[in-house]
Automatic annotation (TrEMBL):
Organism of origin: Streptomyces aurantiacus JA 4570
Residue ranges of every copy of the Carrier domain listed in the record: 1-73
InterPro entries tied to this protein: ACP-like_sf, PP-bd_ACP
Pfam families: PP-binding
Superkingdom in the source lineage: Bacteria
Stated name of the protein: Putative Acyl carrier protein
Length: 77
């Protein structure tokens, strides 16, 4: 799911690809709270993955967000 998350962040939210690593924090990836809200909505609309923006903000790294996506996707299946 990390690659999917990276694609979303780059294509939809215009984040620089080199800033997105599994160890990057939201701040390091330059994701502000508005971008995280947008990400939450995109995940639900386009991928059927329900993760609140609050949960995404609580994730310490981009990799943790990707793991959360994997868990939610598996739980929904």
């Amino acid at each position: 799911m990390f690659d999917t998350l990276k694609e979303i962040l780059v294509a939809m939210l215009k984040v620089s690809p080199e800033k997105i690593t599994e160890d990057a924090t939201c701040e390091e990836a330059e994701l502000d709270s508005l971008a995280v809200v947008e990400l939450s909505m995109l995940l639900e609309k386009d991928y059927g993955i329900k993760i609140s923006d609050d949960e995404l903000i609580e994730a310490e790294t981009i990799g943790e967000m990707a793991r959360m996506m994997t868990q939610r996707r598996a739980a929904a299946a």
